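Journal club prep — side note

Before the paper discussion, L.F. wants everyone to see what a predicted structure for a comparable chain looks like in token form. Sequence:
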Amino acid sequence: MALEFDTSFDPAHGRAVTVAPDVLRITARNPGPFTFHGTNSYLVGRDTLAVIDPGPEDDAHLETLLAAIAGRPVSHIFVSHTHRDHSPLAARLKEHTGAPMLAEGPHRPARALRIGEVNPLDASADLAFVPDVALADNALTQGDGWAIRTVLTPGHTANHAVFALEGTGTLFSADHVMAWSTSIVAPPDGAMADYMRSLDKLLARDGRLLLPGHGGPVTAPGRFMRGLKTHRKMRERAILERIRAGDRTIKEMVAAIYRDTDPRLHGAAGLSVLAHLEDMVARGLVATNGEPAIDGVFVPAG
């Protein structure tokens, strides 16, 4: 199934945009190769609100959020995961509103660091964030005229969660599913096997509209997520073909597979290839000496 990305998105920086009944989107002005036009924060409700993903540490974005809140009570602040473009503003928003912060938990890697390994994504992690309420899978949080169900979706990060607005078919998909791009899955922060299991978990739900952490909505979620699965499987096959053709290092594979990709993203592409290789080694498709590593040598299994 072909995967078609939608990059036609107006971020409307500095103002709130209605994207569903009683749901406003406010996009932070933090554009970049990994954030597209910026991070989307959402306000849910009419009289007493929930905020989903307050966003990066940014004074202007905080002012825009408070203007959109317009003096209404805020009862909950939900955080999908602890990358610096999603969670840091939660603490300051709590100071203004008194609302508790809810998330799966503090930041942690998907697996333990190996001897001599350095996490290249440490700089992007919000290590200071600690939720007031730790959310379990399927937890239902009741608000004023709304209810939000937590769906834990590890993969992009170990503590990633998406939030389903009960009774509407709307799901806030954060960085797990986005219309404009695939999600970055980069060890040791994330894990490909976890990501694929979480994708199947969302496919089993009756979602009709996905509101992601970056970019515009996904309006045909089932078809799009099946396309994401196919895309990941095709990437896995491409990696296996490169290894069978004689490539032995991740650098060689990235040069061939991502030759048409923005060079600024090649570092992330290398980590994505490593995520696939970790999964492929575990499944016995590829072999390497010791644990899979970014500077490792990979050969066909058997």
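L.F.'s comment for the group: The chain has a mean pLDDT of 95. Keep this in mind when we get to the figures.
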